[in-house]
Amino acid sequence: xxxxxxxxxxxxLLEKHAAVNMAEEEKTLQASEIxxxxxxxxxxxxxxxxxxxxxxxxxxNPFLTDLLxxxxxxxxxxxxxxxxxxxxxxxxxxxxxxxxxxxxxxxEDLPLETRDGQxxxxxxxxxxYQVNNKRVIQCNIRDITERKRTEEALLxxxxxxxxxxxxxxxxxxxxIIVSWNSGAEHIYGYTAEEVLGRPVSLxxxxxxDGKDETPSILERIRQGERIAxxxxxxxxxxxxxxxxxxxxxxxRNYTGKIIGASSISRDITERKKMEEIIRRQAYHDALxxxxxxxxxxxxxxxxxxxxxxxxxxxxxxxxxxxxFKKINDTLGHIVGDKLLKEAANRLxxxxxxxxxxxxxxxxEFSILLADIIQPGDAVVISNKILESFKVPYVINEHEIHISxxxxxxxxxxxxxxIDDLMKNADTAMYQAKEKGRNNFQxxxxxxxxxxxxxxxxxxxxxxxxxHSELVVYYQPQVDIISRKINCAEALxxxxxxxxxxxxxxxxxxxxxxxxxxxxxxxxVLHTACAQVKAWQHAGVPPICISVNLSSRxxxxxxxxxxxxxxxxxxxxxxxxxxxxISENVVMQDIDLTISNLTNLAAxxxxxxxxxxxxxxxxxxxxxxxxxQKIKIDKSIISDMAVIPDNKDIINAIIAMSHNLGLTVMxxxxxxxxxxxxxxxxxxxxxxxxxxxxxxxxxxxxxxxKLKS
Length: 708
Ligand code: C2E
Ligand code: MG
Ligand code: MG
Description:
Elements: H1 2-42, E1 46-51, E2 57-60, H2 62-68, H3 72-75, H4 93-101, E3 104-113, E4 119-131, E5 134-143, H5 145-163, E6 167-172, E7 177-180, H6 182-188, H7 192-195, H8 214-222, E8 227-235, E9 241-252, E10 258-267, H9 269-283, H10 293-310, E11 313-321, H11 324-331, H12 333-350, E12 356-359, E13 364-372, H13 376-388, E14 393-395, E15 398-400, E16 404-411, H14 418-434, E17 440-442, H15 445-464, E18 470-479, E19 485-496, E20 500-502, H16 504-514, H17 517-538, E21 544-549, H18 551-555, H19 559-570, E22 577-582, H20 583-588, H21 590-602, E23 606-612, E24 629-632, H22 634-638, H23 645-659, E25 663-667, H24 672-681, E26 685-687, E27 695-696, H25 697-707
Parallel strand pairs: 16-17, 19-21, 21-22, 22-23, 23-24, 24-25, 25-26
Antiparallel strand pairs: 1-2, 1-5, 3-4, 4-5, 6-7, 6-10, 8-9, 9-10, 11-13, 11-16, 12-13, 14-15, 18-19, 18-26, 18-27, 19-20
Helix pairs in contact: 11-12, 15-16, 17-19
The protein binds ligand C2E and magnesium ion (MG) (2 copies).
């Protein structure tokens, strides 16, 4: 019994408990129902509840009604296959069976047609479960249309990027490469593996100016700037350089923050080459390859600016081939063209590197001589041209004699503008034609007269050696106390056929300008050394010979060779040769002086510093040089009576020279007073009219006989 009661009590207890549980369960159920409902209503996926058995729509959440374009009421109670959207899974009752029978179905990508006929891509998941003895199907529908489109767009983009011939490169704001397409592989020769994670500066060639523009470009990108069609030179993996055109844009993340840069670069090497060809064609004459009128004007504009700044002169030469038309007409255009080409080559050979020759028209050429010192420089070139045209042209077995007429205008005196300079050179050219062709004329006719004289003299002078018109005079250099002749200075004279005997002052400046002075110097050196040898043969007591070296000869790279050659040919003891180098020349380029003097001293030759006291040098600067003698300039000697300071200067030079162990000679000594003063100061030697003028060889030999 007790058992029964116990069991009853227990049952009661259990039932009570169950009742309590039921009530609580009810509450919890209600709460979860509310939560579910809220989720259902606000879900960002579509949710559809169906009666599994009938296929009728029981519930549909707002997201899905929005997506489908039907209202909840319209859908309520409809069978799934009766409405349009779910054609692919529930086109008919039979098709629907699959949903009905399977507990769980998932379609990753299903088309859904909305009420207005749009196709959406959805992910579809269905679950079948029991609610209150009823089987329901819950369908979750996620709209993946946008995601799919983005994915597809990305795939397409990747395909585009990869199929592009341009290099498309992504980098961080620090310039680290993060993407690299096949175009980049092709253009730069690096594979993606080789460059990813490396700095983009790997592509930048070492710039001779040391400027890598990457940092400044990255800075502009950071500021949000897009840099379009920026042309630069990059370096390939194999080290070769490549012209490229770059467009660089900032890359932003979804918040709009700049996180990197993307660049598209294109190989423009070919385009550059084409541009260069076109540029050349635009600026050059196709037949001769010379600059054309346009380029000539460009150069002229530039040179005028330079000349203006440096206060220099420019010569514009205008030339035209004489009677070219006749040749063209009689021998034909092919011969004419070849002749023009040949003429262009000859012209090129007549000018300096810095000058411009252009073909201006048919048989017209222009030459721009930049940075000339004087109009005479244009004469030198004109003569060269006229000379070079004297040699007949041989073209297609025709021997063609052709000359040219040249007109010259000088900037700035004949015009400050291009037009004036060209017009005036042209006018001058017509004057040259009128004067019988095959000559040149300056626009400023005064120049013609001056240069004419100069040219005649120059031409004559160039022949003076061949025509044996140069003569050496000898002036004794004597011991100031004993007046014994130690040496003779060789001084050149020119026996001009018309003008008579010319002193150096009348022709050496011109010889210096034209460069002929080096030939004169070599000739004098040879003649004087040969004279020493002749005296030795004749048994005359040995005296040394002083020979002057001009600045140009001193700078002659062959100087040492010339002197040693002369010594060899004349076979004299080098001790008898004293080379006089003017103080100014010695100080001009001290490195050259040291090297020249060292090399010449090695031959056994001696040196005097000529015209000392006229330049800026101090005796102490001469200390390092292997020299033996200082010659005090004649202007200091001749002025010592009128400029009292000179006496102090002379005494100081003597004292300091002696200090350095150098012999001192006074030049241009004309009076016994001067001799007395120099003797009292301790001067060692003298040269001057007080003892003897420079004499021709016969006179000098008489003098030696007399004095010895
Ligand atoms: P220099 O080398 O200083 O030569 C001395 C010049 O002074 C000579 O003039 C000489 O005739 C002149 N002279 C000598 N004693 C007296 C005098 O007591 N009073 C006056 N008033 N003059 C005197 P020259 O021969 O006319 O030569 C002038 C310059 O021409 C030389 O000056 C030298 O620089 C240059 N020269 C002469 N011959 C040559 C040469 O063969 N080659 C080079 N490069 N230059 C030479
Ligand atoms: Mg001299
Ligand atoms: Mg002198």
